[in-house]
Specification:
Elements: H1 2-32, H2 43-56, H3 59-72
Helix pairs in contact: 2-3
Length: about 80
């Protein structure tokens, strides 16, 4: 069971890192615009598009948010 616990801990840490990097990319996109040298593409546009797709999906989008929220929420 220790192996499973260590895998779960590693996945949680990787998820936290990904969320932190996404937040950094959004802040840099707001400050410097789309032309940040090390960020590929339009991060803010992509996040807005994902949120729009979830909103347009109605109940399916609500279920997706309900599934993703506990995964990304800090305890």
């Amino acid at each position: 069971m220790q192996y499973l616990d260590s895998i779960i801990t590693a996945v949680k840490k990787i998820t936290e890192l990904a969320v932190a990097l996404l937040a950094l990319a959004i802040v840099l996109g707001v400050i410097f615009g789309d032309k940040v040298a090390f960020l590929p593409g339009n991060v803010i546009g992509n996040v807005t598009s994902i949120i729009g797709m979830l909103g347009a999906s109605g109940l399916v989008g609500l279920v997706a948010v309900g599934v993703l929220y506990p995964i990304l929420a800090k305890k």
